[in-house]
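Design a sequence for this backbone.
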């Protein structure tokens, strides 16, 4: 069983989530009602996954998530967010979590997200991406041209599909170590911190005409 700590104000919503995540072999250790409480319980219980709604975490959501990640580097965080968050893709990427889904979405979407995060793959709600696309304003941003080699572009595409390093290595006929090396170079070029931010970057590029070009060399 995967241990899971829930952070949600509504008892009714929390009960529904617990029913759904049981289908992914997850055991809910406790349900917290605030950012401070989830920090205390996370330190005590050391869950493998933390599932928290942004509304429950409040204005200090990003700071709370950073503290949760610092408590245990192996804990994965899933953030539930409202349907129209009023944020750009770049804003949401700042949360730096393993999964993001719409809080009032279908149960099947929640189950898909939890299973993906269990397997170590970042997950982003496709409906949320659609709403974010409507709030982004490409004309207000100054694009920066970044050149990636054909192989790096292939790695980026496979990461955006949710593939693990092992799956990418098999698909691209590389070793896992080489894939990690490529990802390090790609993250450095794009000034990104993790795979989730890379997935956001790919989405943003598609919406605003790609700022990533093939290396002319």
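Sequence:
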């Amino acid at each position: 069983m995967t241990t899971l700590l829930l952070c949600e104000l509504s008892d009714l919503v929390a009960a529904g989530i617990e029913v759904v995540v049981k289908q992914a072999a997850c055991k809910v250790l406790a349900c917290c009602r605030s950012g401070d409480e989830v920090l205390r319980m996370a330190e005590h219980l050391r869950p493998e996954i933390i599932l928290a709604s942004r509304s429950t975490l409040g204005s200090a959501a990003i700071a709370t998530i950073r503290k949760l990640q610092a408590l245990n580097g192996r804990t994965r965080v899933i953030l539930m967010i409202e349907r129209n968050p009023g944020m750009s893709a770049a804003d949401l990427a700042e949360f730096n979590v393993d999964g993001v889904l719409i809080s009032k979405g279908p149960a099947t979407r929640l189950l898909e997200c939890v299973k993906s995060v269990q397997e170590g793959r970042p997950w982003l709600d496709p409906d949320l991406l659609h709403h974010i696309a409507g709030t982004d304003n490409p004309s207000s941003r100054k694009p920066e041209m970044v050149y990636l080699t054909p192989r790096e572009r292939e790695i980026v595409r496979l990461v955006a599909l949710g593939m693990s390093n092992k799956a990418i290595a098999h698909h691209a006929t590389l070793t896992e170590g080489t894939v990690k090396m490529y990802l390090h170079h790609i993250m450095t070029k794009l000034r990104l911190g993790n795979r989730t931010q890379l997935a956001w970057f790919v989405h943003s590029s598609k919406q605003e005409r790609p700022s990533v070009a093939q290396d002319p060399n």
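The CA atoms of residues 55 and 154 lie 37 Å apart.
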